[in-house]
Amino acid sequence: MKITDIRQQVKRVDRYSIHIDGKYAFPLGETELLNTGLRIGQEFDQAGLDELKDKAVIDKGYDRALNLIMRRPRSEWELRDYLKRKEYSTEVTDQILNKLSERGYVDDVDFATRWVDSRRLLKSTSKRRLIQELRQKRVADETIQAVLEADETDERAVLRDLIERKRKQTKYQDDLKLMQYLVRQGYNYGDIKSVLQDKS
Predict the structure, then answer these.
(1) Is the pLDDT confidence value at 8 over 90?
(2) Most exposed of 37, 118, 123, 164 (fewest Cβ within 10 Å)?
(3) Which residues touch 4 (CB under 8 Å, ≥6 apart)?
């Protein structure tokens, strides 16, 4: 079996279509193509071809996972779940995640830190809500605890800011409705009552 053509893909210029004996066989990313050193005219036995195809599967899964991460950071569980839905085996998924981890793309501490920073910046998110969100991403409790201990945000200041903003809306002039909203956002009842009393 011989490689008869290596063509750059039209829609993805960083990926190449490998043709064996005149027929399309599998795609490879630019980096993996360079790593394998494939060239036109190169011959393979069945075992060699199977090994190449296995590398192509891992390469495509890695490429898909990387594209997902580029949209927003992901926890390890989110990536594992995504690859499972794409029907990659556990063994292949482990290899893809190891490759991503080696390059610094999978790190739950970094993910949780970015998540907290982002949520603190965009919304007045309570610590309790952050814990809930990170648990939904299957981040380990000890990682969540470490990240939140390093977070120097003053929870009461965040709560005061949120109350000020919500008070501008007509429906939150009513203390009971405002308190119910704040409890749903994960704030502690005692803190809510205390901050509201400070403001009155």
Answers:
(1) no
(2) 37
(3) 19, 20, 21, 22, 40
pLDDT tens across 154-168, in order? 888 888 888 888 888
Judgement on whether residues 71 and 8 belong to the same structural domain of the protein? yes
Last residue of a domain, one of 102, 119, 144: 102
**Strands 15-20 vs 23-29: parallel, antiparallel or unpaired:** antiparallel
Rounded to whole angstroms, the Cα distance separating 187 from 175 reads: 15
Average pLDDT over residues 64-76: 92
Residues 54 and 117 in one domain: no
| The model's pTM | 0.73
Among 78, 102, 126, where does a domain finish? 102
- Write out the residue range of the structural domain in which residue 190 sits: 155-200
The domain total for the chain is 3
Q: Is the distance from CB of 83 to CB of 96 less than 8 angstroms?
A: yes
Residue 93 reports pLDDT greater than 80: yes
Band of the pLDDT at 199, cuts 50, 70, 90? low
Given a contact cutoff of 8 angstroms between Cβ atoms, the answer to whether 83 and 65 are in contact is yes
